[in-house]
């Protein structure tokens, strides 16, 4: 989409063409004023530097020390990083990240593709209402999402009530309070939250696919399934890279929903890297270790983004 | 044409999916209207007073004030900065652009976790933790990357003919920004404001770290505190959750299209 916008020549009207000099120029190139531009940029750049850039560099530096936040810091070299890979809590947290990628990214994408393919077809009525409804969870603040799911999973909540009502009372659980169930329970809450976003983004991607392609498949005698794999899926490459980037990055840094429901427990059964970071930074300060987690998250996020962008380009 | 059977299956599947998504929300709304503090549904006795009671007991007026001050300042100042830096990169050009533009873009991918811990200690040494100034500054700083990228794209889409005719009329850079570029980029600015409103209003993590004084905390933290205190009063907790969600849900439903366009292009880097 941004590529379209990035090509202003196409957007310009006929009068523009008449005036265009042989050398192709970008809009406003004639009055480019780089020093004045720097002046316009300065306020934003300063705030960005103070809040993001400088602290990020400080974070990299801090990660090389042992520091409790109060007394003198001592040099640690790469110890915080080597500890990252040895620490059983963190190893657990990383395993959970993979788990969350499944529930926050893979599942919502699969479901989103399915429901977008179903609801975007011309013959289906009420597609707009459907998308507005499934998009609702995406607008809720995590604090509210936590209230909702704590209620649904409560020992006397609707899930357990329903199980008891159909005589399966022995299957009732305190879902968020049990080692076995807490992680999948949170995963489902995550799928619930991300699914609407995937549906809506895929639908808007599908609207850009020319209708003739579908007609062609139908003429060939192809059904809905073939239509999906030969036309819809390849046409969604752009949306797919957006959706993957958004959901994978969210899965890597899950914090709010877990912190507000289980605080990483019971035990460490739902702990995530960001929760460890928060605890190390503020509960029982080991600031260097917290900073090293932040740096590793940054590297992983940047790598993930690069891989996703690369993959979506390669196929074209 | 699609066959009849295929169509029926489509509707059934979509209905099941919708129900699964909406069910938890409906349940909580039901709780919010029920008289029983243990949370058993009783829609025969709708208790609208739950909303007022939850609001008073949770002290949400104070939290609302903070949320409005924080979100309002971030949206306004953030939009101004985004317009200026977007204009710089999109129209004027910037000295050192090859270095500065990727540097600014980096902020879109960089997770908050990378800089939030040092940021906390920095803010502590400036004495601005637990203040509106501090949390507003942090939100704005984080919004610069996306805002700049977004407004730059919008300004570059302005047809060359229009900008040039303004130049012939003798308009300076400042006048051109106000008279030509801003009016044309209005839809983009609306989207930017919407996104920045939602992100700031819904934030939990950043406020949790930078604001520990309840007098300056936003609604999201207020709800967290309330749910800790009132575990028993499930109906009141649900009522509070419903109230807090309303502004964003209404806003997003009204502007859903702009909202989605924003998300779509936000992650697409060039």
TrEMBL record, chain A:
Matching Pfam families: BPD_transp_1
Alphabetic keyword roster: Cell membrane, Membrane, Transmembrane, Transmembrane helix, Transport
Record domain ABC transmembrane type-1: where: 94-308
GO CC field: plasma membrane
UniProt biased composition (Basic residues): 20-29
Biological process (GO), any one: transmembrane transport
Keyword Transmembrane helix: yes
Region ranges (Disordered): 1-29
Matches recorded under CDD domains: TM_PBP2
Subcellular location: Cell membrane
TM segment ranges: 35-57, 98-118, 130-149, 181-202, 242-260, 287-309
Membrane topology of the entry: Multi-pass membrane protein
Protein family membership: Belongs to the binding-protein-dependent transport system permease family.
Name of the protein in its database record: Sugar ABC transporter permease
Biological source species: Rugosimonospora africana
